């Protein structure tokens, strides 16, 4: 895949003043418009949308994804004072397909290797193909869009504006792992595994492509493929096309938590993350902390 030019960063809103308010209003305005301020504002807004729509019937999760993109645009433009090339419609489909290809290969190669080493065996679940597939697509679209807007759209870019790309990548990766500690069967190991293979890899993918749609495609294909294969997704076992039986060590097959805690995808994710970061550096996608930034 070719590398896209990095987009120019806009001045963060901490440098702007609230001309219409009094001294207290100006201070509040500056706090809200600072990177951490608009990050928290945006994550809260998208989080509310996700909570209201993630488990809704039929197309509700997809409608929630559309609403979340709208919230993202409003917060970034009106509060942060930034343009949003990372969610531009032009080229969105192409970037989503590219990310989806990476996510699909990631899951299929991981699954094939685990199966080859005796960790998985599959059988047809006998469920309706169309119904199960459409349900998975709806749910995972909502999850991929809302999570990527919160973690890569708001959190990574806000922390990057303060401390640079590398620090932002590490912090958001760890944060992503911590956020999954509430999943069924979660442990310190599952949190660390998700931090590395999902948090850091998805962050590196964003720094390389500078496109939310690329990481949404990757995230969506990953979760959807897992679900359809019948593999637990972060401790949850939604209805899939297959049922999977695990054999041997949980370090190989991930146990009840799912693919994410297997050593196989962790190693593969490192093999993907490193070249993504190299390409991000070559294209100018890695940014340093601004001088004087506290």
Question: What would a concise description of this structure say?
Answer:
The protein has helices spanning 23-33, 35-53, 60-79, 92-116, 129-163, 165-179, 188-209, 212-229, 250-253, 263-282, and strands spanning 120-124, 242-246. With 294 residues, the protein is mainly alpha-helical.
Topology:
Elements (H helix, E strand, L loop, with lengths): L22 H11 L1 H19 L6 H20 L12 H25 L3 E5 L4 H35 L1 H15 L8 H22 L2 H18 L12 E5 L3 H4 L9 H20 L12
Antiparallel strand pairs: 1-2
What brief labels describe this structure?
294 residues; mainly alpha; two-stranded antiparallel ribbon; disordered N terminus
Helix content: 55-70%
Number of strands: 2
Topology as a string of helices (H) and strands (E): HHHHEHHHHEHH
Content-based structural category: mainly alpha
Average pLDDT level: 90
Numbering strands along the chain, what is their spatial order in the largest sheet?
1-2
Q: So what's the overall shape? A: globular
| Biggest beta-sheet profile | 2 strands, antiparallel
What integer value in Å does the Rg equal? 20 Å
DSSP strand content: under 5%
Uncertain segments = 1-24
User: Count of helical segments?
Assistant: 10
How many angstroms does the end-to-end distance come to?
37 Å
Commentary on this structure:
The structure is a single chain. The protein is mainly alpha-helical. The chain has a domain at 88-282. It contains ten helices and two strands. The chain has helices spanning 23-33, 35-53, 60-79, 92-116, 129-163, 165-179, 188-209, 212-229, 250-253, 263-282, and strands spanning 120-124, 242-246. Strands 1-2 form a two-stranded antiparallel sheet. The longest helix has 35 residues, at 129-163.
């Amino acid at each position: 895949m070719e590398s896209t030019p990095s987009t120019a960063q806009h001045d963060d809103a901490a440098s702007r003043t609230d001309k219409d308010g009094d001294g207290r209003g100006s201070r509040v305005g500056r706090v809200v418009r600072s990177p951490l301020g608009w990050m928290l504002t945006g994550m809260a807004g998208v989080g509310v949308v996700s909570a209201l729509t993630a488990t809704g019937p039929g197309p509700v999760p997809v409608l929630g994804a559309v609403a979340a993109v709208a919230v993202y645009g409003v917060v970034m433009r009106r509060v942060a004072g930034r343009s949003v090339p990372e969610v531009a419609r032009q080229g969105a489909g192409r970037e989503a397909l590219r990310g989806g290809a990476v996510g699909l290969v990631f899951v299929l190669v991981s699954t094939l290797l685990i199966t080859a080493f005796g960790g998985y065996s599959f059988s047809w679940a006998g469920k309706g193909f169309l119904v199960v597939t459409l349900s998975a697509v709806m749910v995972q679209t909502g999850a991929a869009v809302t999570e990527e807007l919160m973690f890569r759209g708001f959190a990574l870019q806000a922390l990057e504006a303060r401390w640079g790309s590398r620090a932002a990548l590490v912090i958001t990766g760890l944060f992503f792992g911590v956020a999954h500690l509430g999943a069924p069967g979660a442990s310190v190991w599952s949190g660390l595994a998700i931090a590395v293979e999902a948090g850091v890899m998805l962050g590196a993918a964003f720094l390389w492509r500078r496109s939310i749609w690329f990481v949404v495609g990757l995230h969506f294909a990953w979760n959807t493929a897992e679900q359809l294969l019948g593999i637990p997704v972060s401790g949850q076992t939604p209805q899939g096309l297959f049922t999977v039986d695990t054999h041997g060590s949980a370090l190989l097959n991930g146990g009840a938590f799912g693919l994410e805690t297997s050593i196989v995808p962790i190693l593969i994710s490192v093999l993907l993350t490193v070249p993504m970061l190299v390409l991000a550096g070559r294209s100018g996608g890695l940014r340093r902390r601004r001088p004087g930034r506290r």
